[in-house]
Amino acid sequence: MVEVRHHLATGIAFGAPSLQALATDTSRRHQLLARHYEARLLAGMPPLKARLFANENPFGPSEKAKQAIIDSLRDSYMYAFMSMKQLVSQTAQEEGVKEENILLGAGSSELLLAAALHYTLSTKGGKIVSADPSYTWMMEAAVEHGGGWEKVPLTKDYMHDLDGMEKRVNAGTSLVYICNPNNPTGTVVNPEKLRSFCEAVSRKKPVFVDEAYIDYTDDPKKHSMVDCVRKGQNVMVARTFSKLHAFAGLRVGYLVAQPATIKLMKKYCSGGFDMSAPSVAAATASLQDTEFREYARAKNAESKAFLCKTLKEEGMNTYRRMPISYFSR
Ligand SMILES: Cc1ncc(COP(=O)(O)O)c(C=O)c1O
Prior knowledge:
Blueprint: H1 2-14, H2 19-23, H3 26-42, H4 63-73, H5 81-95, E1 102-105, H6 108-122, E2 127-132, H7 137-144, E3 148-153, H8 162-168, E4 173-179, H9 191-201, E5 207-210, H10 220-223, H11 226-230, E6 235-240, E7 253-256, H12 259-265, H13 277-288, H14 290-313, E8 317-321, E9 324-328
Helix pairs in contact: 4-13, 5-13, 6-7
The structure holds pyridoxal-5'-phosphate.
C-alpha cells in the first residue's frame, strides 16, 4: 500500500520520469506533494477524498469512535487524566505488556521526535543507523539537532539489509531505526530475522522499530517486535492510530518500551497530555471495535488489488512482496 501510494501520487502528479530519485528523498517528495495539493485547493478544485501521498485511511474512523468523540464533548472542559489512564491500561492489555511499558503521544511523530532528541543529545551527536530509503522523520530531526545519520541502502529487492545495518553499528551510533513495513517501499522484514537482529543489536545500542503499518501485514502479532520489549530487550516499538484506525487528524500514538526508557523519553514529549480528551475517548472506543479493524484491513486489501490491477493495465509492473506492492515501469 505505502509504496504504491507514494509512487503513484509522485509519478502522476508530476509526470516525473525519475521516480527512483524522488523515492530516495522522502522529505522533498512530501514537500512537492503538499505544494501540489495546496495548488489544487487554491485553483478552486475540490479537496481530495483520499490523499494517497499522506497514507491516510479514508474508510474511517469507525462509527463507534465518532460517537465517543460526541459523547466526550460534554466533559471536555476537564483534563483527560482518567481517560488517558484507561487508554494506557487498554493498550498495555492489547500488547501484553505492563502499563509502565506504555507511553502515549499525540501521534507517533511526537514519540519519534522524543527518541531523536534524547538519543542525539545524550550521545552528543551520535549517528542513527537506518535503511535508505525509509521514513525520514526521526533522522531529519536528529540531524537538525546535531546528530548524524548512517544510511544503509535497501537490497536490490527493496528489503532492509539487516546484516549491512548491524555492521554499521559502532560506538558512535545513537540508535538503530527500522521501519517495518517500510515506508516508502512497503516491504516487510522476515520476523525471525528481525527478532535475531533486535536481540543481538539491542545489546549494543537501542533499536527503534516503527510499526505504523504493521496492522496491514498478514499477521500483525507475528510481525510485531513488542515481544522483544516483553523479554526485556532495549527495543522500542512505535505504533499509531493514524493508519488502520484512520485517526491521522485525531493524533494518537504510543510507544512500547522499557520503563526506564520511557522515563527518559518523557523529558522530550508531553507523555500524552497533548492529546485531546475526544481523541483519547475515540481511541479507547476504536481499540474495542474489532469489527471496524477487520473492515479497514479488508478495504485496504481490496483497494490495493484494484490499484495493482489498474497499474498492470497501464503497463506498469508491481513488485509484490507480502503484503504490500511496489511498482516500476
Ligand atoms: C512510518 C511512519 N511512521 C510514523 C508516521 C507518523 O504517524 P503519526 O504521527 O500520524 O502517528 C508515519 C506517517 O505517515 C509513517 O509513515
